Give the backbone structure.
Amino acid sequence: MVPDRGTWQLTAGAAVAGLVVAVAAVTAAGPWDNGQRKAERDHAAALGRTGGADHQVAGRGRDAAEAPGPAPAPSAPGVLSAASPPKVPSTTPTDLARVLGPLLDAPGLGPLRTASVVDATTGRQLYGRGAGTAMTPASTIKIATAAAVLSATGPAHRIPTRVVAAPGFRAVTLVGGGDPTLDTVRLRALADRTAKALRDRGVTTVRLSYDTSLYEGPVIHPIGAGNDNIAPVTALMLNEGRLDDSTEGSARRGADPAGDAARAFVGLLSERGVNTSAGPAPGRAPAKGPALATTYSAPVPALVERMLTDSDNDIAEALARQTALATRRPASFAGAEAAVTDRLKRLKLPVAGARFADGSGLNRADKVSAALLTTLLVRAADPAHPELRPVLTGLPIAGFTGTLSGRSATGAGGLVRAKTGTLRGVDTLAGTVLSADGRLLAFAFLAGDTPSASAARPALDRLAAALLP
């Protein structure tokens, strides 16, 4: 399973010991690796896509993403040599309470702290503090977004971007299907096919419109316009509306991503000998117009993995709307909320008190409990739900990938897999580890009114590391 922007390649010059640590950790991380998800090991070893922690570090350039070169893996000494954190001799509730209790009381976690640790095989809660209390989850809500879209769409679903012609082929419409990962490479290929289809019919001048009608409701996220963490939420955009060469993390976004994408398409058509007599302008595609060309996103499981690894807000909002569309609801914030809630109920998850006001976790109105997050992770490890496996394979690896690439408590590098979450005063972490007695544990730690992320993040990382052997 690979993201749409190039292959997560095994790094040619990587230190063998560092790769062995990461791959071994992933191999040991649960019962789901039965051949259905070979990409699990590939992603653990592939270090080509590392992102800033929760959108606050600028991403890598597109050229690097499209043609990644060799990059060194973390060295074995950096992963293995340092002193170990407090360890749990066995995963009994008493042992966990003794070790985790003091760590959960760390001042850096603020006054509001909840926790849940669950045996993924049995579903038994081994440790809890306020586990059923709904709190603002920040980006850990993306675990719920992932489970919902995977259960609603199926593994083969790809998001289309189409070019539809009017009768006579003198007007064409670029139709957005909700794919925020549409990039210049695929837009160029779309222009190639469109230009050829028009030239084959003797057409060299067209009117161009662009159709974003698939989405309904507000385009601007409730956090407001001009936020570097998310573009206006529209069914048509190029490179997530980014105005630089980044591919993940925070970046300045265009105010009109759909118009920007259409203007880029006009330029590409012109380079191919097809000029526009008017436009681009907003419009609706003809209901029965012939499709001249189509490009597709990566399959939904790959989008889920990219969303979770990089904590990508634009993909998260798109996948929430794909859930709405798959369940015949409006592709809007409200429609996505209803769809995600319904899918989680169908998975028999504890959604009492939960709210999914958006798909990304940027909205402080979102509420989930630690118990819901751990139950989601347990369900993703359940052999009865192989469709949910990307929820686990997409989790960042401590010290190696995504928003955990620069984070790991002593001894945890390559061994903790977890989704991060950060808003001002909110810090969360939810993921999986293999326990001292060989069991897969799902954990969630949520903190509110934290004094600073610089104090809260290490405290959360120590909690996760304390579950390791």
Q: What stands out?
A: The first helix runs from residue 16 to 27.
